[in-house]
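RETRY 2/3 - previous attempt timed out on the joint model. Re-submitting the same 430-residue input unchanged.
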Amino acid sequence: MQVSMTINGDQVSLDVEPRTLLVHYLRDHAGLTGTNIGCDTSSCGACTVHLDGEAVKSCTVLAVQADDREVTTIEGLADGDVLHPMQQAFHECHALQCGYCTPGMVMAAVSLLDEVPNPTEDDVREGLEGNLCRCTGYHNIVRAVLQAAGGEETRR
Amino acid sequence: MIPAAFDYVRAESAGHALELLAEHGDGAKLLAGGHSLIPLMKFRLAAPAVVVDIGRITDLSYVRDEGTHLAIGALTRHCDIETSDMVGSQAGLLAAATSKVGDPQVRHRGTIGGAIAHGDPASDIPAALLALRATMVVDGPDGQREVSSDDFFTGFLETAIGEQELLTEIRVPKVPDAGWSFQKFNRRAQDWAIVGAAVLVDNGSCGVGLVNMDSRPVRAAGVESAIAGGAGAADAAASAADGLEPPADLNAGVEYRQHLARVLTRRGLEEAGA
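RETRY 2/3 succeeded.
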């Protein structure tokens, strides 16, 4: 069936099976491999993208559920060579090691700040509970999100 | 993991969904937000021939004040319930339980109707609805009927919703002055509850719903009658696990779950002011 959506501002229309998951639509059909598949069971958050501006786990959304909607992936955040403030904060705070969780973590963090613009550290930790990182111990990730929110001075 | 192949149809309204269910019969399954059904389909534990997508029926997403109760559309998402001022002030227990479901991404997609129609004893929301004495509204070919929360959850992943029926609304009594507590015990963020207790205390009576303490969501009736009879929190909570058959799994055995039910119910009663 024909499934159409706007991905990072571009109109995309592809013929896929109804059972195609959004993450496979993005990676295998639209060629956007920035979104990672981690657990494939809606636990780890590596596949997090925005659907109509809100963070969702694209391994647990059918592509057809995003039909006629707007999807933003990690590829859509930066403005040319200028990183999104959240990406910049992750870079500056060394909020990644292997980087596998990072696309999903950044997308979840951007969505969190949309809903809670001035979060406390607890808000950030709770708001990112759907994203697992096995390297960093989360401290630098939390620091990056707080820096991006402009709420707390960065300590290094 | 990819679901087994299925045919996809999109319902444009509640009436259209009922027509599609009638047309496609046993092989059809309703898809709301998909956060219970899609994981099952990926594991091939469910393989419906036809998926009827009701997720775009926007007029089943609402929270309304109906005087004595709140009317919540079945397709209202968890994130909209947890942040609803009306739910927070009139049925705070439901808002609290909803805020503990999964994680923010899950709550952006999952719906109250989808969650309870799944009938999972490990889900947080049924316990809150049992404690609140909510009523479910079900539409079908023979019209509309109301089902009390006590009659709604009939077995493991089974509810009173018939194959040709659609859950359309959840009616939650307004209890602005009640004390409440939602106790969820798990070992990791975003996990299912190993055991949970939803407690409502209102004018000397109480409601206690338990998570993961039987094959279906259940009330702790012995605790409720003990409180009504004047017992204190600790004495009443001692009967929290009576007559229940909790599952045993890697996280907890039967006796440990029974212990947790008593402890969490006591804490809940104390926090709710019993």
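Chain A has five helices and five strands. Closing ticket.
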